[in-house]
Amino acid sequence: MFDKNRVLLGIAPIAWTNDDMPELGGENTFEQCVSEMALAGFTGSEVGNKYPKDTKALKKALDLRGICIASAWFSSFLTTKPFEETAAPFLKHRDFLYEMGAKVIVVAEQGHSIQGMIDTPVFDRKPHFTAAEWESLARGLEKLGKLAQEKDMNIVYHHHMGTGVQTATEIDKLMEMTDPKLVYLLFDTGHLVFSGENPQQVLAKYAKRIKHVHLKDIRQDILVKVTSEKMSFLQAVKAGVFTVPGDGMIDYEPLFAELANNNYEGWFVVEAEQDPALANPLEYAIKAREYIREKTNL
Ligand SMILES: O=C1C[C@@H](O)[C@H](O)[C@@H](O)C1=O
Ligand SMILES: [Co+2]
Fold first, then answer.
1. Which of 3, 84, 105, 161 has the highest local Cβ count within 10 Å?
2. Which ipTM value was assigned to this complex?
3. Average pLDDT along the chain
């Protein structure tokens, strides 16, 4: 059983408009997106490119719909650029999220990342950090963690396909190399299964360090195609590798049970990017909300 006051349900705007491929859902407006999130029964959202940049305007639009901001993605370049080039935009991002009332900041290292390269096969060409790059990443993340804590916030690290922290082994290395009081983990079910990992094993190891959860499911038949046809990450998304929880191959019952047993506190954010022309975002948001209701007390 989750504590309903401490576990909240959000959904990411990426199902309405995909910032990685703005042609997917380019016609969907911000207002439609947040209205449909509320209609489907969610009370939180992450931040998309169409959201007003002005915090007052954003708050007003969200308050009207009973939605708040759970977090937002931040790209770090700690392995490839001087720390200051990550720190300056991070502070701006932190302050924006602080004003919006968020408690966690999603960070993903984009140094050498191939996640945005549409023609680069995601399994063959993912980066592997050198020892020096791991060191820069770990020390840089700890510094970002301290900057977040100045505002009583925390960073949550997003392991991600096509990046240097994708596999369970890479997650282990990052967790071992960083201070658990400064660097927390974001648990994204879809990225783990895409990478061939066992999400239950990752969860069992890091349940106490997880402060944010992305719920995305995987269509197994599409994953087989992605692997055999050597697709890129973005081609895989377009082909429909991701879907909402309950609509794919992931068994969420043991995952929810483990999180509940560890008194998980924070957000569950449904994050299922797929082509909105093929997968109606409202329909899939409702489907996800019903599935979570069926499998949990939320
Ligand atoms: O959290 C995420 C943010 C997206 O931009 C990303 O590509 C997606 O797959 C994800 O998990
Ligand atoms: Co995610």
1. 105
2. 0.98
3. 98
Angstrom CA distances, 194 to 126, 156, 199, 233, 236, stand at 13, 20, 10, 10, 10
In angstroms, what CA-CA distances link 218 with 143, 170, 204, 253, 291?
A: 34, 21, 21, 15, 15
For residue 177, the Cα-to-chain-centroid distance in whole angstroms is 22
Ligand nearest to the CA of 115: 1
Q: What is the pLDDT of residues 141-154, one digit of tens each?
A: 999 999 999 999 99
Give pLDDT < 70 ranges for the chain: none
Give the model confidence (pLDDT) of 86-110 as tens digits. 999 999 999 999 999 999 999 999 9
- Three-class SS state of 158: strand
CA–CA separation, 161 vs 139, rounded Å? 22
CB–CB of 36/61 below 8 Å? no
Ligand 1 within 6 A of CB of 188: yes
Give 103 Cα–ligand 1 centroid separation in angstroms.
19
Q: CB of 271 closer than 6 A to ligand 1?
A: yes
- Report pLDDT digits (tens) over 259-271: 999 999 999 999 9
> How far, in Å, CA of 141 to CA of 74, rounded?
12
Domains of the chain and CATH, by start: 7-296 (3.20.20.150)
Tell me how far apart the alpha carbons of residues 154 and 242 are, in angstroms, rounded to a whole number. 27
Of 141, 146, 129, give the one whose Cα is nearest residue 80.
129
| Nearest-5° Cα angle at 99, 286 to 207 | 55
Q: Collect contacts of 207-210 with beta carbons under 8 A, ≥24 apart.
A: 207/258, 207/259, 207/261, 207/262, 207/264, 208/262, 209/175, 209/180, 209/184, 209/185, 210/156, 210/184, 210/185, 210/186, 210/259, 210/264, 210/266
Instruction: Give yes or no for residue 214 CB within 6 A of ligand 1.
Output: yes
Return the biggest CA–CA distance within the chain: 49
Residue 129 in contact with ligand 1 by CB distance below 6 A: no
